What does this fold into?
Amino acid sequence: MIFESHAHYDDQTFDVDREELLKKMPEWGIGRIVNVSASLSGVESTWKLTQQYPFIYGTVGIHPDEVADLDEEKFSWLRIQCTRDKIVAVGEIGLDYYWDKASHETQKYWFIRQLALARELKLPVIIHSREAAQDTMDILKEYGEGLGGVIHCFSYAPEMAREYVKMGYYIGVGGVVTFKNAKKLKETVQQIPLERILLETDCPYLAPVPFRGKRNNSQYLVYVAEAVGALKGVSAQEVIEVTDKNARKMYDLQ
Ligand code: NI
It folds into this structure.
């Protein structure tokens, strides 16, 4: 079954039909879902989802767009949330110089603090990085050694993906791989081993072709598996099986 390694089902775009949609996931071939938190309120709504659905796991982390909300008291609260039942990673954390909602110094500071938290609690990390390729690499070289985790929604050069694979990270691949103009990501998929790829939607965002521009959900991952399979010369089924194994290993869900 498909392992959905990165979703945001607590997003308000799912308020109209969340329950209906999630109930159907097993019959659509979705075995497990990791719901990724990005904000303080997202940590709570993610945890609630993990308690409602046996196949949903959660993460705890503050996205670089939201780190201006953090202080020591909230960070202590985050640490406690990380130790709760069914929390399998710290994320999503990282740097976002596209939206630039907090200063680069503030983003780096809380990125490094959350990496240290993951190390302390022996959890893998989910990395968000947009237009911050070099700073992300530098910080992960210094503070992310041996942590394990995934560079989610990978958007950089294939050489950089190969470097992350060498450092022990997985590469998250989603709907973008089905876009005609996604040359770099297609090359990345060709250049790294299937054993290092995770399937992810990042839903509600980034729906694959033929649903591009619409609200995304895990059911569409089969289109991502097909595109990855075509690039690697294997069947979609093999992609589904190998990436399921990869995700279980990374999230320690054997
Ligand atoms: Ni995300």
